[in-house]
Amino acid sequence: MDRRYRKVIIAGNWKMNVNPSEAKKLANALLPCAAVRDTTVVLCVPAIDLTVVKRVLRQSRIAVGGQNCHFEESGAYTGETSAQMLANAGAKYVIIGHSERRTMFGDTDEVVRKKVAAAIRDGLRPIICVGESELQREMGMTEDVIRSQVKSAVYGVSADEFRRVVFAYEPVWAIGTGKTATPEDANEICKLIRACLREKYGARPSRGVSILYGGSMNEKNAPALLAMPHVDGGLVGGASLDPDAFAAIVAATK
Ligand code: PEP
């Protein structure tokens, strides 16, 4: 983390867990996470939980976010939620391009690009996920995959809009598997993401973008990952459902 230039963010991704009735309880249990000053905590919750979680957090510095959005503002898109709807329900962030969306729900680079544009248009901060699969890693394709996902996601994002963007390096093989990238590997790829962004936006804006690591982050491995200079926080799945584990990850940013 390098707090001189960028925001440190710990974002929880509840995925398709937690009913609205349980959400109230979990959000209350996570309230103490706001105590770490200078660390931004975000809870990315199922769309149906947004209102109740926002209500619990209304006096707190913890922000809420969505986990996905449609790229259109409104219309005949049964079952979808627009960025505008998320914003209206109190979201400040939205995860875009999570590997579960890319692999299971057909979110191509082109769809990710449109969703990033929609999130920015509707006043949200997109947390853009990029990462290589196990096979791509074994084949030595990691750098190429990251470069192309990064470039495509911000294609069309102006320098001014870029200030709203957050990235997350999430190696697909590390998500929900208990396998974690080594702190050095995570740092190298976060550095590579920053280098790609520098090519497009220049030195100062790329120095200011927060790049998170995600993939089986927990209270044990978080201190070493977060100590890396290019890792500006974490996107946390499983451990975000455990208030003690999540609080320990947030505390590791101190
Ligand atoms: C995620 O869902 O973004 C994630 C990183 O999950 P987990 O922490 O469970 O690997």
Care to describe what's here?
The radius of gyration is 17 Å and the shape is globular. An eight-stranded parallel barrel has the order 1-2-3-4-5-6-7-8, surrounded by five helices. The longest helix has 19 residues, at 183-201. The protein is built from twelve helices and eight strands. α7 (142-153) packs across α9. It has 254 residues and is α/β, with parallel strands linked by helices. The chain has one domain (3-251): Aldolase class I (TIM Barrel), CATH 3.20.20.70. Bound molecules: phosphoenolpyruvate (PEP). Phosphoenolpyruvate binds at residues 13, 15, 98, 170, 175-176, 214-217, 235-239.
Which residue ranges are poorly predicted, with pLDDT under 50 across at least 5 consecutive positions? none
How far apart the termini lie comes to 10 Å
User: How many structural domains does the protein architecture include?
Assistant: 1
Small molecules bound: phosphoenolpyruvate
Roughly how much helix do the residues carry, as a percent range?
40-55%
CATH-defined fold name: TIM Barrel
Order of strands in the sheet with most strands: 1-2-3-4-5-6-7-8
Protein topology:
Layout: E1 8-13, H1 20-30, E2 39-44, H2 50-56, E3 63-66, H3 83-88, E4 93-96, H4 99-104, H5 109-121, E5 125-130, H6 134-138, H7 142-153, H8 159-162, E6 166-169, H9 183-201, H10 203-208, E7 211-214, H11 222-226, E8 233-236, H12 243-251
Parallel strand pairs: 1-2, 1-8, 2-3, 3-4, 4-5, 5-6, 6-7, 7-8
Helix pairs in contact: 7-9
The structure holds phosphoenolpyruvate.
Descriptive key words:
254 residues; alpha/beta; TIM Barrel; eight-stranded parallel beta barrel; 8 strands; 15% strand; binds phosphoenolpyruvate
